[in-house]
Design brief:
Elements (H helix, E strand, L loop, with lengths): L2 E4 L2 E3 L2 E2 L5 E2 L1 H9 L6 H4 L2 E3 L5 H7 L6 H14 L2 E4 L15 H7 L4 E6 L4 H14 L4 E7 L8 H11 L4 E5 L7 H6 L6
Parallel strand pairs: 1-6, 2-5, 7-8, 8-9
Antiparallel strand pairs: 3-4
Length: about 190
């Protein structure tokens, strides 16, 4: 099965010797694609300022346009049997004055997987986001517990609370990692669920 990933919009890009910008998340996605995939398809919009994408685009004298993202998405979809699209900033983050991440997901007719950064305050954030996804009529396939705080108290209990409250299955738990690589994530033990 051929697989690819896409991060349509990224901020916090780093300038390259050839004058282009590259985002570290998009580069990680590119390295995990099963086929050789050009960067511009994986990340059609990359901005240097590490701020909300609509603000970054405005600071750079640019705009984020759905047809550009759709063209890259369509090309990647035609070349791969499986395509995963990563969001930016959260479900309600604006991309321009008419489109937010939720609208992008709806326009591309994608289901959602919610990634929860497990830290203090995550329960409220996760439940509000799950409710918003479902209210927008987007299928919520499941959620992932991403353990971002190595000092998190009652980690398993917080994940258990989320399991009871999010109306979708826990797909997996990513432990806190200093060195992040797909191989390392695959070999780390998971919490139940």
């Amino acid at each position: 099965m051929t697989t690819a990933g896409m991060k349509p919009v990224a901020s916090g890009g780093i300038g390259q010797a050839n004058g282009t910008l590259r985002n570290s998340d998009a580069l990680s996605i590119q390295s995990c694609c099963s086929t050789s995939t050009p960067y511009h398809l994986i990340n059609p919009y990359c901005f240097e300022p590490p701020v909300a994408p609509h603000l970054a685009a405005d600071m750079c004298g640019s705009s984020i346009d759905l047809p550009v993202i759709r063209a890259a998405y369509d090309e990647l979809s035609q070349q791969n049997e499986c395509l995963v699209v990563e969001g930016v900033g959260g479900w309600r983050v604006p991309l321009n004055d008419k489109l937010d991440v939720a609208g992008l997901c709806q326009a591309l007719q994608l289901p959602a997987v919610l990634v929860v950064g497990v830290k203090l305050g995550c329960i409220n954030h996760a439940l509000l986001t799950a409710r918003s996804i479902l209210a927008d009529g987007v299928p919520l396939l499941g959620w992932v517990a991403n353990c971002v705080d190595p000092e998190m108290q009652l980690l398993e209990q917080n994940i258990g609370s989320l399991q009871q409250s999010i109306p979708a299955p826990l797909l997996g738990t990513i432990p806190f990692l200093v060195d992040i690589s797909p191989a390392l994530i695959a070999e780390k033990p998971r919490l139940p669920g």
